[in-house]
Structures are given as structure tokens and as C-alpha cells.
Amino acid sequence: MSDLATLLERNRRFAADFREGDLAIRPRLSTVVLTCLDARVDPAHFLGLELGDVVVLRNAGGRITPAVLSDLAVLGFLAGRLPGNAATQLELAVIHHPDCGMSRLADPAAQQDLAERLGVEPADIASMAITDPAESVRADIETLRRMPGAPGSLVVSGHTYDVATGALSTIVEPAPLGLGNAD
Ligand SMILES: [Zn+2]
Prior knowledge:
By secondary structure, the protein is α/β, with parallel strands linked by helices. Helices cover 34% and strands 18% of the residues. It contains 6 helices and 5 strands, in the order H-E-H-E-H-E-H-H-H-E-E. The protein has helices spanning 3-16, 43-46, 66-79, 108-118, 122-126, 133-146, and strands spanning 31-36, 55-59, 91-96, 155-161, 168-176. A 5-stranded mixed beta sheet has the order 2-1-3-4-5, covered by helices on one side. Strand 4 and strand 5 (168-176) form a beta hairpin. The mean pLDDT is 92. The structure holds zinc ion. Zinc ion binds at residues 36, 38, 61, 97, 100-102.
């Protein structure tokens, strides 16, 4: 059986017992989770999520990027227009992890190779490397704070998820992005 056939078979079993077709579009919890696309780093597992609990954004490394900022803007826009608690204030939890594939990008030869494939500068690739997840999660929250259009009222926290133990550690306590902002 191909991998896709395996997945389709699993979905058939999932749909056969499906009882949650009446879930509200608004998630039960107001925290948005941003984390790595690594198969070991699945918040549905390590945060015990149920269907409909939270919005999860995933990219290579769980990095703050302009695309993430754009998604947050869309979510904030929609949150004010969905039925339910209109006063819901979104929070963002950024979660990086050790042994991230993005650690391979610390190697200058890898930076050069990937930069050529993507048509960008090696320095752009170097900034994507994650060697110390606690350091990169702190740096990303600072990056978000400095991004034009970042909502100052957004409460942001930073964490690391240990793929060896399953434990989450809080590195940056939750605080509104506007706190510590120079302007
Ligand atoms: Zn990763």
C-alpha cells in the first residue's frame, strides 16, 4: 500500500465514526500555536488538542515570517466578525524545538546550496538556521515586535518543545507585544 493509500484508508475509518460536524468555526481556545512542520512536533499530540480547539500555524522551524504576520492579521480580522465572544483577544504561542532540521542550515555550504535553489542570498538562509531553540524563539518574538503592522495588543509567549522527553518549557512569558516596544 502506498503512503497516500494508507492515509486515505485512515481517513475512511475516521469519517466512518465522525460525530463532530457541528463544530463552530471559532476555536474553543484563543491561543494560536506557531510551531515547526517537523513530524515529531505535532501540537495535536503534545498539547492534547481536540478537533476545534485551536488554530495551528506551522512552517519550517516555526519561525516568525511575513506570512505568519499576514495570517495573524487575517485571524484577528475574522475573530471580530465570527459569531461568539466578540471580545476574544488572540494570543500567540511560538514553539521551537531542539534537533530541528533548520539546524542543518547553520552550515555555510548548506546555506550556499539552498540559497542558489531558492534564488536568495546565503545570509537570508543563515537567518533561518536554528541551533539553539531558546535563543531563536526569543529572537523571533523580538522580530515580531519590530515588524511594521504587528498588533501591540497581541499577547505572545515563547516555548521550546523537547522531542526527546515530550516536555514543553516556557522561555518567554506571555506579554502583550506592545510591552517593550520602543514606539
Ligand atoms: Zn523543526
